[in-house]
Amino acid sequence: ADYPFTTLVPSLGVVRMDNEKSFVVADIPGLIEGAAEGAGLGIRFLKHLERCRVLLHLIDIDPIDGTDPVENARIIISELEKYSQDLAAKPRWLVFNKIDLLDKAEAEEKAKAIAEALGWEDKYYLISAASGLGVKDLCWDVMTFIIENPVVQAEEAKQPEKVEFMWDDYHRQ
């Protein structure tokens, strides 16, 4: 297909940090404009994100197709907001990928400029999926976040319903 991304099917993977620590990652295909209204397979992909505790928004720091990374990010953020305010409110980290294609200072400068243009005040990371640069630190921070932010179950799911029952009352009738 003629898309600026290659993942077309959501997939799950386990990231093992050590013998006792691991977490599951959901790799979701890139969203296109209109995904929240059903364009492409957007709604199916967005539903996968509802179960995630933190969203990692991967952005090519210097897109090979010449598109603007700020505009690309704004489209995705807009689709999250249109789909669900709960989803848009989830913790979200920017992850700038392909930093190995630039020198370190240029990558840092571009990442900072993109984050500022987005009004981004949360975490952001610079990585190279190809070389592994920055990936380990990102994974450890995700692991730490997951440990420090356990799943909160709905109150009604935590507490079984209490039903008053007296054996003697039952037999008297």
UniProtKB/TrEMBL annotation:
<dbReference type="InterPro" id="IPR027417">
    <property type="entry name" value="P-loop_NTPase"/>
</dbReference>
<dbReference type="InterPro" id="IPR006074">
    <property type="entry name" value="GTP1-OBG_CS"/>
</dbReference>
<protein>
    <submittedName>
        <fullName>GTPase ObgE</fullName>
    </submittedName>
</protein>
<dbReference type="GO" id="GO:0003924">
    <property type="term" value="F:GTPase activity"/>
</dbReference>
<dbReference type="GO" id="GO:0005525">
    <property type="term" value="F:GTP binding"/>
</dbReference>
<dbReference type="InterPro" id="IPR006073">
    <property type="entry name" value="GTP-bd"/>
</dbReference>
<feature type="domain" description="OBG-type G">
    <location>
        <begin position="1"/>
        <end position="147"/>
    </location>
</feature>
<keyword id="KW-0460">Magnesium</keyword>
<dbReference type="Pfam" id="PF01926">
    <property type="entry name" value="MMR_HSR1"/>
</dbReference>
<keyword id="KW-0342">GTP-binding</keyword>
<keyword id="KW-0547">Nucleotide-binding</keyword>
<dbReference type="InterPro" id="IPR045086">
    <property type="entry name" value="OBG_GTPase"/>
</dbReference>
<dbReference type="InterPro" id="IPR031167">
    <property type="entry name" value="G_OBG"/>
</dbReference>
